Amino acid sequence: MKLKLGDKVKIITKDKEYIGIYVPSPSKNTFILKLDSGYNLGISKIKIKSIRLIKKSKEKKFKKEKIKFKKKLPTVLILHTGGTIASRVSYETGAVISRFKPEELISMFPELKKIANIKSKLIFQIFSEDIRFSHYNKIAKEISKNMNVKGIIVTHGTDTLHYTASALAFILENIPIPVILVGAQRSSDRGSTDAYLNLISAAYFIAKTNFQGVAICMHSSINDETCYILPACKTRKLHTSRRDAFKVINDSPIAEIKKSEIKFFKKPTITKEKFKLKLIKPNLKIGILKAHPNMYAKEIDNYKNFDGLILEGTGLGQFPINYLDKSTLENKKTYNKLKQLSKKIPIVMTSQCLFGSLNMNVYATGRKLQDIGIIGNYTDILPETAFIKLAFLLSHHKKDIKKLWNKNLRGEIDKRILPEQYLE
Amino acid sequence: MKLKLGDKVKIITKDKEYIGIYVPSPSKNTFILKLDSGYNLGISKIKIKSIRLIKKSKEKKFKKEKIKFKKKLPTVLILHTGGTIASRVSYETGAVISRFKPEELISMFPELKKIANIKSKLIFQIFSEDIRFSHYNKIAKEISKNMNVKGIIVTHGTDTLHYTASALAFILENIPIPVILVGAQRSSDRGSTDAYLNLISAAYFIAKTNFQGVAICMHSSINDETCYILPACKTRKLHTSRRDAFKVINDSPIAEIKKSEIKFFKKPTITKEKFKLKLIKPNLKIGILKAHPNMYAKEIDNYKNFDGLILEGTGLGQFPINYLDKSTLENKKTYNKLKQLSKKIPIVMTSQCLFGSLNMNVYATGRKLQDIGIIGNYTDILPETAFIKLAFLLSHHKKDIKKLWNKNLRGEIDKRILPEQYLE
Q1: Are the C-beta atoms of residues A159 and A187 closer than 8 Å to each other?
Q2: What's the CA gap between A348 and A394, in Å, rounded?
Q3: Which residues of B touch A242 (CB under 8 A)?
Q4: Is residue A2 part of a domain?
Q5: Cα dihedral B235, A234, A159, A394 sign
Q6: A58 falls in which pLDDT band (50, 70, 90)?
Q7: How high is the pLDDT of residue A93?
Q8: Contact across the interface for A294 and B284, Cβ inside 8 Å
Q9: What pLDDT is recorded for position A92?
């Protein structure tokens, strides 16, 4: 029997039986079944006694609707960059939508046509973990060429969606329209998909408000009922699989969307300044180094040819740099390497605690770090956002990095925690 | 006027006046005041118009109580390793307690003497960010020499307390008594200190239960009323300053302590196996590398002379390794370096999402990573615990790392997420 991908099969091993859809396997020795739960199960081929075909995979065609332009509705542009949200790859049906035409989007998400006139474009299709600075620039350029719409939705893989949100917030200075990033934690071919609500909610938010700037629209809870509009620079993926994986850190959501009802948690700011497209230099080398026990000076030295370094320190902004006796000799070496590197490139402190803000005056370690030029005291910026902000400053404000680090440029720092001298 | 550290002063600048305690400054150009809120404020010396002395610092002597051994009470040993919890450095009084005698502890925490007979020892006094593997061994040896008590409290700086908790859990195999790590987020000289409740709660927990093994005792909320006993390998510091900074991830607390009342959330396990002291090799070099956009292959190559590497991947366990076109050429190089390194040293995947578990079968990236030998699929281990577990396995089970990685050895993996083949 020749099995085809997408066939529903029963696999019988010595002890058990499994029913699922036959999907591609990473290894010759393993058979992968997509179970009804949506998850994949790997079964060693040597364990398999027999395989029975339960249902052949069948091709299903999507009905393509003709779209009428409705004068009363605003226009929303949907830009696709990859991820599971819009690429409905269903092994069950064999159908793949990848051309990303408005008709296809509307056949997948019919409610869209009631909310707005939909334009769409596939910019690229990439796993979000593979995204590089050049991709940010590509998305930003596409946005800057299309600002004659009510707003733009960027569909994106969730793994690095928050990095891209930060990047677009920095690149698109004073953007006068909403740019809403939307992902899906469960692919559109699963019953539990969050794609529908996330996309529809983003469309309602754009159609019904005058929000300006970059934000994220994702589920507010595991219930498939409400979404949050989340601040681009204060949000982080905090769960590998839950629909409400995206959490605001050191801030609050911007708004909640329940069907078409929108409730703002804070007053959106209105931009009057001129829009500027401030692209990130694609070849910048910036590292992220997390403090951990038993560090070696080599871990600092690794970055000697980089353009900048983000430290994920411990607690209020500490790093293992203190020498007490021979048991901590390596910490002294780490200190010396840090001191040396800090003369060459900007080194920024953040906290691996994620929540809360830095205070590098409380303990001697933080004061020593400040003395050798480590930047970051009094900020509550996320390490991921810090990484993007450093790339932005290295691209456009290289001489003012120290000064601008403690300024809140895009909502990345809670101004209330900044000491007076930064608030002028 | 000659000011002394600890003096209460009023500082007058051009625009403002500040009142606080004069504390040491990291820089010659800055004057640091400890405000009533407990936080420090730096003021540029050039801005200062005048300084007025409000109250001289005064030395206060602690009354040392004589301790009587009470036959009815259990004995608890308190081992001090550093951190703010027991080193009451008060600028207000000038008094410093650092010898860590039982009498001093009881003068600071009088309730202790009602709960247990207290023995104490200062092992070392170190900022917890500076702790190295050799320190874990020193603490563990001290514990192994003192198992004739009801239980042991280890006082510790909070920054890396969760790493040490994991390390002790792995090193002290089948420990028959409770070892409870306790820290304080606010130092004992502040009104808002959490030191008292954390220490007293740990003592009650040891005195009143038959718990065996390593755990953490810290505040359960910002109210100074209840503590949690937290699992050593499933807890992480998730706030820079809050009293309830320690959060359980992918698990639940073990118990709650309200004054002397203890409520268990799960049945503690009883150890019948023989206790073994399994020290960690102090010179192991293990790195932690977090996936981020725009990575360079060099960031992998940095670890070529290390003994092991923890990856903090994105989402379900991904890393930027896919080549699509010239925009992602560097990702291909990263893939090649990872493939090369994986032949030499164990490389383990964890998720920077922290919450949730890995599933490296869902996407092609995860499957490719498994193909080149990256370990970690189906685990929900924290990156910090993974770092410690890898050090432990490299020290004692070097040939079985792949096999043992997916076994739950110390509560570091939720067994329910493991596929069948790991549960035998």
Answers
A1: no
A2: 12
A3: 355-356
A4: no
A5: negative
A6: low
A7: 37
A8: yes
A9: 40
Q: Which of A285, A298, A314 sits opposite B159 (nearest CB)?
A: A314
Which helix H or strand E contains B115, and what residues bound it? Answer: helix B112-115
**Does residue B257 sit in the same domain as residue B331?**
no
A42 and A175 inside one domain: no
- CA-based nearest distance A221→chain B, Å: 15
pLDDT score of A40 more than 70: no
Mean pLDDT, chain A, rounded, equals: 89
Identify any residues that bridge with B12 across adjacent strands, giving them in sequence order. Answer: B17, B50
- Cβ count within 10 A of residue A44: 12
Read off the pLDDT band of A41 (50, 70, 90). Answer: confident
pLDDT digits (tens, 9 = 90+) for B355-410: 999 999 888 899 899 999 999 999 999 999 999 999 999 999 999 999 999 999 99
Domain range for residue B401?
Answer: 286-422
Per DSSP, B176 falls in state S
SS3 content of chain B, % helix, strand, coil (to 5): 25, 25, 50
DSSP string, B26-40: SSTTEEEEE-TTS-E
The answer to the question of residue A64 being in a domain is: no
Query: DSSP secondary-structure letter at B47?
Result: G
Give the burial string for B108-144 (b: 16+ CB within 10 Å, else e): bbeebbebbbbbbebbbebbbbbbbbbbbbbbbebbe
Long-range contacts of A305-309 (CB under 8 A, 24+ apart): A305/B298, A306/A345, A307/A345, A307/A394, A308/A284, A308/A345, A308/A346, A308/A347, A308/A348, A308/A390, A308/A391, A308/A394, A309/A341, A309/A345, A309/A346, A309/A347, A309/A348
Is residue B64 a part of any domain in this protein? no
pLDDT category of residue B95 using cuts at 50, 70 and 90: very low
The residue in chain A having the minimum alpha-carbon distance to the alpha carbon of residue B43 is: A421
Q: What are phi and psi of A332, to 5 degrees?
A: -65, -40
Residue A338 backbone phi and psi in degrees, to 5: -65, -40
**Does any domain span residue B253?**
yes
Q: How far is A387 from chain B (nearest CA, A)?
A: 9
What is the signed CA dihedral for A220, A226, A231, A235, rounded to 10 degrees?
20
Tell how strand B255-258 and strand B226-231 pair up: antiparallel
> Residue B347 and residue B291: Cα distance in Å, rounded?
13
Tell me the pTM.
0.88
The DSSP code sequence of A313-327 is EBTTTB-S----SGG
DSSP-derived 3-state class of residue A152: strand
Report whether pLDDT(B94) > 80: no
DSSP B130: G
Task: Give CA–CA dist A167/A135, Å, rounded.
Answer: 10
Q: Say how many residues make up chain A.
A: 424
Number of H helices, E strands in chain B: 10, 20
Element (H, E) at A114: helix A112-115
Are the CB atoms for A289 and A383 separated by under 8 Å?
Answer: no
Maximal CA-CA distance, chain B: 77
Number of independent structural domains in chain A: 3
Predicted local confidence at residue A65, as pLDDT: 62
Gap from A312 CA to chain B (nearest CA, Å): 10
- Is A423 part of the contact surface with chain B (CB cutoff 8 Å)? no
Between CA A13 and CA A48 the distance in angstroms is 5
Select the more confidently predicted residue: A57 or A263. A263
Instruction: Please check whether residue A237 touches B, CB under 8 A.
Output: yes
Domain holding B408: CATH number?
3.40.50.40
